[in-house]
Design a protein that fits this description.
This protein has 7 helices and 10 strands. The protein is of the alpha/beta class. The longest helix has 16 residues. The mean pLDDT is about 95.
Length: about 230
């Protein structure tokens, strides 16, 4: 069915629920304070989220450990000798963007370094492009960029090609998009571990429908590094 113009995600949830058109829902792009989660909980509709929220009431989810992944990526750059490590962050109302930023910041704090090279933009190629240009024109520009998503990193790679010395900047993204293997240089990235995630989501939905406790329907997967070329000086 066509989506009414201007309809929000919450409006769509309400339309499906009030129309008795669903038995359960899978929610994506979760926000830290997600009205869809609160609405479905209030109506008693089973659901699973792809990503976490800060809801005080537990709910089923599958998510990658973005905090640990971005902390580890930052430590990797620190171990390689970088000190001016910038983060291109996604909008902080989204849970994934917030915890990824916090992982980078925690590693910088632990190293006794200022976590001041950070800019928040839309998680798109255009957002990453403009953010990278802004960061690289700072008086003390970064030597490494950690991007919240691969799309942002691909945009940042274009910015690096336009900057003198840009080929010396190391960069990493997250999501392991297939196109990342074909960028120049090939994009180093991160990805959530786990096989057959579609099956896992379906299984959790069925268990939620069956009434299993939400606390037993939560999967936090490790994030692993995908070692390509862009995180190394060239």
């Amino acid at each position: 069915a066509p989506v009414p113009r201007g309809e929000s995600d919450l409006d769509m949830c309400r339309r499906f629920v009030d129309g008795r058109r669903i038995d359960a829902m899978l929610l994506v792009r979760t926000k830290r304070h997600d009205e869809r989660v609160e609405f479905l909980q209030s109506r008693g509709i089973p659901f699973v989220t792809n990503g976490r929220t800060e809801s005080p009431i537990p709910h089923p989810f599958i998510d990658g450990d973005g905090f640990a992944g971005f902390h580890a990526a930052t430590v990797r750059f620190l171990s390689a000798g970088h000190r001016r490590i910038a983060h291109i962050a996604g909008p902080q109302e989204y849970y994934f963007a917030h915890v990824r930023r916090m992982g980078w910041k925690a590693a910088m704090d632990e190293a006794g370094l200022e976590a001041d090279l950070c800019t928040e933009v839309a998680p798109t190629e255009q957002g990453g492009y403009h953010a990278a240009l802004e960061l690289l024109h700072q008086p003390s520009p970064p030597t490494a960029l950690i991007c919240a998503t691969d799309e942002m990193a691909i945009g940042a790679l274009r910015a690096l090609r336009e900057i003198d010395g840009g080929n010396a900047i190391s960069i990493v993204g997250h999501d392991d998009l297939p196109m990342g293997a074909f960028t120049s240089p090939s994009l180093s990235t991160m990805r959530m571990t786990g096989e057959n995630l579609g099956v896992s989501f379906a299984s959790l939905l069925l268990r939620a429908i069956a009434g299993e406790p939400a606390e037993e329907l939560q999967e936090l997967h490790a994030v692993e590094f995908v070692d390509r070329d862009s995180h190394r000086p060239r």
